[in-house]
Design brief:
Number of strands: 23
CATH topology of the largest domain: Sulfite Oxidase, Chain A, domain 2
Number of helices: 5
Helix content: under 10%
Largest sheet: 7 strands, mixed
CATH architecture of the largest domain: Alpha-Beta Complex
CATH superfamily of the largest domain: Oxidoreductase, molybdopterin-binding domain
Oligomer: single chain
CATH class of the largest domain: Alpha Beta
Structural class: mainly beta
């Protein structure tokens, strides 16, 4: 059984020879990554989109659901779903990625949801701009943070809590942030936050509060668990760390050929092999994608597809003249702030890990 951490502890680190535990397998069975072959879709079907549920999927009756907007405002709001839908609707295509994506590849391994590379998905989200609601509620000029509370409830590292995250007031007032009620043109599925969730384009998944029930404006910094303890890049247990915010650049390859059932090693025929995938960044526009067929020893440019919406992934493609043998393929994205690392600097919680993908391939 996984040790229960005390309040404020950063993480537990697996010992050198420690296998994935039953507790971690239970998490992996409840949560799931996107099968990498689904990178072929411009919009990820909801059932293939990655999923992370911190506690339980709550049952929220749309007929009785209410959203409050209160706190450091002049005119608090209380909205039902009909009232929320009465505002002008806005749609955005946004790629979401879990902040812990890639955690299970780190050594030593932080003990938590054991993601490999697949905790990602892209959807068209439709809803009301958060800024519309905040301005109608009369956010005061000296507002500091805006807190979002979901209906999911549980304990984490000894702290009983509703899932709750905050954004700086300036970020919350951006016209990009949505209070969303549709995914790919249909009402949100229960596992994706029905009836209403937050969408914060460009930020890792922890900011996208699901089953949203209240929005509270604060005149002081928010110091809740999910901001101050859970989602930090820490070098050690004593390090207060940096907060996890925007998505770092990442590129993923659609695994070529066909797989071995158990190992997922790919098998392709010698000759011209078309490689393709998707790349994205939440911090700055992409500048290039490169591909390696020799385990990262050398890199060649890939062709980037057309620019989609700012916070949606972008397609790429390359041709590989494959000769018989065993290979490790990789792909690497760069944005205006720099490229993905080949080897990820380690951190206590395995957060914001964007080291390059590795795809073992046998050419026959």
């Amino acid at each position: 059984m996984t040790d229960v951490l005390r309040p404020g502890e950063a993480a537990r680190i697996a010992s050198e020879d420690e296998a994935v535990s039953l507790d971690e397998l239970r998490l992996a069975a409840r949560n799931h990554g996107m099968p990498l072959e689904a990178l072929r879709y411009d919009l990820t079907p909801p059932g293939l989109h990655y999923l992370l549920v911190h506690y339980d999927i709550p049952f929220v009756d749309p007929a009785t659901w209410r959203l409050t907007v209160d706190g450091h405002v002049g005119a608090p709001l209380a909205l039902d779903l009909t009232a929320l839908r009465a505002y002008p609707a806005v749609s955005q295509v946004v790629t979401l990625e879990c902040a812990g994506n890639g955690r299970a590849r780190l050594l030593p391994r932080p003990v938590s949801q054991p993601w490999l590379d697949e905790a990602v998905g892209t959807a068209r989200w439709t809803g009301t701009p958060l800024s519309t609601l905040l301005r109608e509620a009369g956010v005061r000029e000296d507002a500091v943070d805006v807190v979002f509370t979901g209906a999911d409830h549980g304990t984490e590292r000894g702290v009983e809590q509703d899932y709750q995250r905050a954004l700086p007031a300036a970020e919350a007032l951006s016209d990009e942030v949505l209070v969303a009620y549709e995914m790919n043109g249909a009402p949100l599925p229960p596992q994706h936050g029905a009836p209403v969730r937050l969408i914060v384009p460009g930020w890792y998944g922890m900011a996208q509060v699901k089953w949203l029930r209240s929005i509270t404006v604060l005149a002081e910094p928010y110091t809740g668990f999910q901001n101050e303890v859970a989602y930090r890049v820490r070098a050690s247990a004593d390090d207060p760390g940096e907060p996890v915010t925007r998505i770092r650049p990442r590129s993923l390859m659609i695994p070529p050929g066909f797989p071995d059932f158990m190992t997922r090693r790919r098998i392709v025929s010698a000759g011209s092999v078309e490689l393709s995938g998707r790349a994205w960044s939440g911090r700055a526009p992409l500048t290039e994608v490169t591909v390696s067929t020799d385990g990262g020893a050398s890199w060649a440019p890939a062709s980037l597809g057309p620019v989609a919406e700012r916070y949606a992934w972008r397609s790429w493609s390359a041709t590989w003249q494959a000769e018989p043998g065993d290979y490790v393929l990789s792909t690497r994205a760069a944005d205006e702030d720099g490229p993905q690392p080949v080897d990820q600097p380690w951190n206590m919680q395995g957060m914001a890990n964007n080291m390059t993908q590795q795809v073992p391939v046998t050419v026959r």
